[in-house]
Every structure is written in C-alpha cells, then in structure tokens.
User: Fold this.
Amino acid sequence: MKRYNLGNYLDLIILIELSRQDSYAYLIIKKLRETMAKEYVVKDASVYNLLKRFEKNNLLEGRSKEVKNNRTRYVYSITNDGLLYLKELKKEWEITKRVIDNTIREGAINA
Amino acid sequence: MLKEFIEAVFRDTKGQNDQLKHEIYENLNEEIEDLVSSGMKLNEAEHIVISKLGSINEFRNNLGLETKTNFQFYLNVFLFILHFLISIAGLIYSLGFLSSNVKFKPILEWIPINFGLLVTYVLISSIVNLVIIIILTSKSKFQKTLVISKVYYILLFLTLPISLFGLVPLLINKDTYILNFFNTRSGSNEYKKVMIKRLSLVFILVLVCFSAVTILRKETLVQDEIVIQYVTGDDTDGVNIRGTIILQPLDGNNTLAQFSSTQYFHYSNFSDEENYLSVIKLNNETAYISDENIGLSENNDSYNEIVLNQNYLELEDDLTIEYQICSEIVCNNVLYYESITSDEYSSYVSKDYNMVWVWD
Assistant:
C-alpha cells in the first residue's frame, strides 16, 4: 500500500487541533493516527519539529505540567499569533480546495 | 532501552535540547505504558515504539537536530590539508628537480636542488601521506566526518598521483637512469625515449591511484548504505545484551532488527522488495533461528521473532554477529553479508550504558 505524507497540511491540522484545546505531542500524534486514513503516515519527529518551530515563532506557547506518578507533560496552547496564522492557512486551504475542485469538475464535464 | 535510544539521538547535538529530550522521553514512555496496559509485554511495547521512530540518524534529522562539529572533524580537515600541502610540495620539488636537471630554465630556482634533500623529502612525505590516506579512507569515523566527502575523493584522486610523482626519481636507478636521463639534451632521441618512459610511469601511477581510490570509494559506499547501531546494557536478570541492528539502504527504508535481553530478534521494513534477513553466527556459534530465514514485511506493525540459542552473552566477550540479507528465502542470492565485531567499535564506550556502537 502506497503511503502519503501530509506535507504542509500538517501545520494546518496541528493548529486546528490546538485551537480546540491545549494538548501535548503524544496526544496530538495519537489523535492524528486515529483520525487519518491509513494511507497517510505521520512521523513523530515531524510533529515535534513542527511544534518546536511554532513555539519558536510564538504561534504556540509551551509549559510543563505535572501529571500523576510524578510525570510531566509539555503542554502547548495556541497564541493569538497562532490563531491569526491558522486563519491564513484555512483561507489558503479553501482557495486551494476550490481551485482543485473546479479543475476536477471541468475535467469531468469535458470528459 | 528507550532512554538509551533518546540519549543516542541527542548526543552531541547543537543547542539546548534538554526540554525537548525530556518531552519526547515522557511522551514515548506514556505510549509504551498505553501499549502495556492494553496487554502487551513491556519489552515488546518498547520495541514497537522505538522501531516506529526509525533509525537514530533518521529521527535526529527529522527532529531538525544538528550534531556538533567535533574534534574529529577538525583533525580530519587538518590531516587532509596536510596531505594536500605535502602533495603540492611534492609536485614543486619534483618539477624543480627535474627541470633543473634537464637543463631547462628551472621553474623554481629558489628550491635547493639537492638529491639527498629530495630523497629525505620523498621518503618522509610518502610515509606521512600513506598514513594520512590510510586513516582517512579507513572504516573509522574520520572519513565519515568529512562533510565534503565527494570533493575529498576528487582531491584525493588528484593529489595522490601528484605526491607519488615525487617518487619518480627514486623509482629510477640513480646511477644509471637518472644521470643518463638528466644529462641528455632536450630534442635528442635519447631524451624523447626517456620522456616517453617517464610519462608512461606517471600514467601507470595515475591508473594505480585511480583504481585504489575507486576501490576505497566503492567500499565506503557500501558502508554508507548500512547503519548499524548496537546497544548493550545491564538488565535486572544479570549480565546480558540487547541490541539493535538497523540496516538502512540508500532508499531511506529501514530494516530494524533488534534483540533484547531475552534474545529476540525483531525487524521492520527493509524495502518494498521482499528481502530476507538471516543471522548466521553469533560469537562464532551458529545461531539457531526459529524460521531459519525471516521475511521482511512491508508492514511496520508486524514483526517476527528469531530466538537465538544463547541464553546470554558475557559483556566481557568480544561480540561478533554475522548476518546476511538475501533476495530469496532459500538464500541463493546474498544481497549483503556483514560481520560486526565489538572490537571495531570499542571507542564508543559510554558510561551511561555499557557500549554503543553507531556506524553511520
């Protein structure tokens, strides 16, 4: 089975997830794996890389949180800058989706 | 094992990554706990979680981590520059020596033309060059740390014959050939003959050097395709060994074969092609493998186990594993054979865990 990479859309998906609620890397990865089609592959490292990049660019804010059994979780929250960036990404996605849908539809009519 | 993997990923990386290291460790631990709570054995859960991360290098690269430029790199560059300078000096000396003796206007008149000096130079430079080349092209980390490896090989190819060119006068008998050669006048038939001989000799030297570098390069390419990471450590049940063999072909897919303190071998995908990994010997004893050969599945989630016949291996022992990858289960066609010995990696002893050998 051929497997695909989410590429740039991983930015969008992660920010959407964090705009709903604060979360941490493992939970984000777990949710992505549960919700995504089998054809798509999510690498743990890519998610960590992205979260760190967003945090560095002040799109996300991270903080350590103590949980049970003396364990800590590093939890991320989306910032105002992050929300603005998410809005941009959503807009970009809508345009891309519309252009591709139109192209496919035209192709179907012509065929 | 998780801790060791994470430590290896973050070892010698640039920047402050303690928080990220801790974060990843905690998250992966939680994932392992989830698997264990669903009924999986701790050992198996660890293997599954680590194997999906890929090789140490792959995980490190995907995290965007960069490794520090270390002492070996500078030493490597220093040795290479030394080699290069010696080679150029060899060329200058040789040209100066030859040009002055054939009564051409000396190219570099300031070079003291003294046969004794030349002999000393050629002997010393040849020995130094030889040592440098052996170090740089050996299986050690030296050659691997040179980032500009392709440029290095091209320069090595160019400079090696140049440095050997300094040997030309020595290869020719001093009393007969050199004196006759250098006493002849340009334009004479004797001179032309000598020139042809000399150019032939240089040509042969170039060919020899080219062949040598090509062979070394080929060997290195094979090494580049394979990443072997081997981890051993103390476990609660006494002295034992656990390890990971990661075979990483250039296409980016991995074979992950691991054996733990319970001597199980696990693997994940090697490539889209059906390939078979078999362990032939462990410490010179034929390793008993339950299925004899193991098919490498494309499915990351599934893995088979190979039970080795040793209950444990003493850490003091030199560990040697021989294994091969075949294109068919009956192994008529061996794609790759490798024997790894702990001796080769003894320099990678760490206090955190007994030994880690990373060959990349």
About this structure: Chain A has one domain: 4-110. The longest helix of chain A spans residues 80-110. Residues 4-110 of chain A form a domain with the Arc Repressor Mutant, subunit A fold (CATH 1.10.10.10). The interface with chain B takes residues 1, 24-26, 29-30, 43-46, 48-49, 52-53, 71-74 of chain A (CB under 8 Å).
